[in-house]
């Protein structure tokens, strides 16, 4: 059982940076892959990036690769998303998710947070 709470959202100007955090509680947190998804206004939820349970492997959507970085601290049970060089198109509600599988598929995501709003102004 895992509970997730996102924080760090806000308003930032284009070209700026923002760091999101996801606080997790669960006795088996270190066994879960953790991922970030986002839902832009008027659009469907989309994949942003994922990190393996150990933190040794990360994968990103092409749209954010080179700009966003996922990291985790299993001792503190936290996952972060560092976002640099932000575009207005990055505006979305960002969600933290957890699953035992690192393989993304239609039903990925056993647990989800409530989301945090990120707004990038032009």
Largest sheet features:
7 strands, mixed
Tally of contiguous helical segments: 0
Taking the alpha carbons of the first and last residues, their distance comes to 40 Å
Overall structural class, as computed from helix and strand content, comes to mainly beta
Mean pLDDT: 95
The beta-strand count equals 11
Percent in strands: over 45%
Low-confidence stretches: none
- What share of the residues lie within helices? under 10%
Strand-and-helix sequence, N→C?
EEEEEEEEEEE
Nearest-angstrom radius of gyration? 13 Å
Shape category: globular
Which helices and strands occur, and which strands form pairs?
Layout: E1 3-7, E2 10-13, E3 18-25, E4 33-39, E5 46-51, E6 58-60, E7 68-73, E8 78-83, E9 92-99, E10 111-112, E11 116-121
Parallel strand pairs: 2-11
Antiparallel strand pairs: 1-3, 3-8, 4-5, 4-9, 5-6, 7-8, 9-10, 9-11
